[in-house]
Design a protein that fits this description.
Elements (H helix, E strand, L loop, with lengths): L10 E7 L3 H14 L9 H4 L15 H4 L8 E7 L5 H8 L4 H6 L1 H5 L4 E2 L21 H18 L2 E8 L16 H9 L7 H11 L4 E3 L9 H9 L3 E3 L7 H14 L3 E11 L2 H6 L2 H19 L5 H4 L3 E8 L8 E9 L5 E9 L2 H21 L4 E2 L22 H15 L10 H10 L1
Parallel strand pairs: 1-2, 1-4, 2-3, 4-5, 5-6, 6-11, 7-8
Antiparallel strand pairs: 7-9, 9-10
Bound molecules: nicotinamide-adenine-dinucleotide.
């Protein structure tokens, strides 16, 4: 099937629920890059190349030159938060970026003020902001968000918009009856059903406004049949969930290597300390549970003990997140991996990653926004599994197991781009090079 991709004409609004550490780091980053002060390191859309054709052709264009993405100068940022701080104040509070860098883009950041949030303390206990919408029902709140989106697009002259959820992790919830069909969900909005989380109201408003929705946190949000059905019905892409940045990034890099070499894994203990507001929210057990569930499946699904019980049947996997204010956004993570090799001889791998949480997450937000806009212009709707590369817990069709191996995820993403642009898919078979040689002799 040949994709007819509409041009990226006009401005693209990137609307972000949650203007905290991650959101302000991406917004300030894009402003700094636009001014030539920094480079978009870590962003596949901005710095990544893609191979086209055979290796002998030497065609490796930048992805942004290969597919018609919105340009950085055509992006306008906006968002919602439960705190009224503008993006400059919020970025200063987050302490991710240097004050001197923020000073250089202060007027642009100060101009972005959060719209009033849809918020429910039942879902996030550790926050007490007051920049919150009031309305009799969740249905009215959804209408208010749709009005915000429409106003934002009009005021900023945007031809299109996308939403990337960067707000706090909501408490753990499971699917219930109200999540099963569009009708039940809409009735639930009108009845103020307690099982409808604020993030679901944003997602509903996005889809009804023809705006793609990506979820950077582990909340259920669009992972429910009602919203998947709505995204298909209205022809809008969705992609979820939970940005893959630190512990899970390490797992999806290292575990496939162990499995590819048929090395056994008996235990994997991952722990980190972080002191930002995200860490504070995750200090509540109900919110941590949401994160834990999203993190735990990765290893089990990569190593797959069902297929290879001798190597992975005994795997003990534990994840701990600890709130430790002195470290701020500078997360430190440790992995202790107990592996075994030839004849069962034991070995250990230790990883100590001294990282920066929001520096790793920011390029993901940018890439997701640009790729979701591309997908929408290419008429792709529903679950965008080709964007699994960016997520800890990728969404798939109900009967499919998610692919967590980051290298396979990248191949899937690149082949999707090739497919969209009518280029040959790359299988890495490579036998034809030798076949040609033989024939040439
Ligand atoms: N490496 C990473 O930083 C990383 C990785 C994966 C996932 N995440 C997730 O991304 C999200 C953002 O992380 P962060 O470090 O920026 O956190 P943060 O606490 O700095 O920012 C979150 C912001 O969301 C706001 N908020 C909460 N509920 C809201 C609502 N209903 N509507 C609008 N705003 C709301 C909060 O007031 C806060 O300003 C978190 O859910 C986090 O778990 C982050």
């Amino acid at each position: 099937m040949e994709y007819q991709i509409k041009n990226a004409e006009g401005k693209l609004g990137i609307l972000i629920p949650g203007l905290g550490a991650v959101a302000t780091t991406v917004i300030a980053g894009v402003e700094a890059i636009r001014k030539g002060l920094s480079q978009p390191v870590g962003s596949l859309t901005q710095m990544g190349n893609i191979r086209l054709g055979k290796r002998t052709e030497n065609r490796y264009p930048l992805i942004k030159d290969f597919v018609p993405l919105a340009g950085l100068n055509d992006i306008v940022f906006g968002g919602w938060d439960v705190y009224a701080d503008n993006v400059y104040q919020s970025a200063m509070n987050a302490k991710v970026l240097e004050p001197t860098l923020l000073q250089a883009i202060k007027p642009e950041l100060e101009a972005i003020k959060p719209m009033k949030a849809v918020f429910d303390r039942e879902y996030v206990k550790n926050l007490d902001g007051t920049n919150i919408k009031e309305a009799p029902t969740k249905w009215d709140l959804a209408q208010a968000l749709m009005q915000d989106i429409e106003n934002f697009k009009k005021e900023n002259n945007c031809s299109r918009a996308v939403i990337v959820w960067c707000a706090s992790t909501e408490k753990y919830t499971e699917e219930s009856a109200v999540h099963q069909t569009i009708e039940a969900f809409e009735q639930g909005l009108k009845d103020n059903d307690p099982n409808i989380a604020p993030s679901m109201i944003y997602a509903y408003a996005a889809l009804k406004s023809d705006v793609p929705f990506a979820n950077g946190a582990p909340n259920l949000t669009v992972d429910i049949p009602a919203l998947v059905a709505l995204s298909k019905e209205l022809n809008v892409p969705i992609a979820v969930k939970d940005f893959k940045t630190v512990l899970t990034l390490m797992k999806s890099i290292v575990a496939p290597g162990m499995q590819d070499r048929d090395l056994g894994v008996r235990g994997w203990f991952s722990s980190n300390i972080l002191g930002n507001r995200d860490g504070l929210v995750l200090d509540d057990p109900d919110n941590f549970k949401t994160k834990e569930v999203s993190k735990l499946s990765v290893l089990e699904e990569i190593l797959n003990a069902d297929i290879n019980p001798e190597l992975y049947g005994e795997l003990y996997h534990k994840v701990r997140i600890n709130y430790y204010p002195p470290h701020g956004d500078n997360k430190e993570s440790w992995d202790n991996i107990d592996i075994f090799g030839w004849l069962g001889y034991q070995m250990q791998i230790k990883i100590n990653f001294l990282c920066r949480d929001s520096i790793l997450a920011a390029p993901i937000v940018l890439d997701l926004a640009l790729f979701m806009d591309l997908a929408h212009r290419a008429d792709m709707s529903g679950v965008q599994e080709w964007l699994s590369f960016y997520f800890k817990a990728p969404q798939t069709a109900p009967e499919l197991k998610p692919e967590h191996d980051i290298f396979k995820q990248l191949i899937k993403l690149q082949n999707t781009l090739r497919h969209m642009m009518g280029e040959d898919l790359i299988t890495h078979l490579g036998l034809d090079y030798y076949q040609d040689l033989v024939e040439a002799l």
